[in-house]
């Protein structure tokens, strides 16, 4: 099982759009609010991402 670390929203979209995240776990370390988190999770099935997690940034 591989986990891809995304450091920015742009890196997430670039990799997702190029099918580089299919079947993988993704961990986002950029700051997100609840709306952006929900928006990203909405695309999990479309991009065939196994799981998406988010870092808790204080």
Automatic annotation (TrEMBL):
Source species, domain of life: Bacteria
The name on file for this protein is: Exonuclease V subunit gamma
Which species is this UniProt entry from? Vibrio marisflavi CECT 7928
């Amino acid at each position: 099982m591989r986990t891809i670390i995304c450091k920015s929203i742009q890196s997430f979209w670039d990799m997702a759009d190029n099918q580089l995240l299919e079947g993988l776990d993704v961990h986002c370390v950029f700051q997100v609010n609840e709306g952006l988190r929900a928006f990203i999770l909405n695309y999990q099935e479309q991009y065939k991402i196994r799981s998406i997690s988010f870092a808790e940034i204080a």
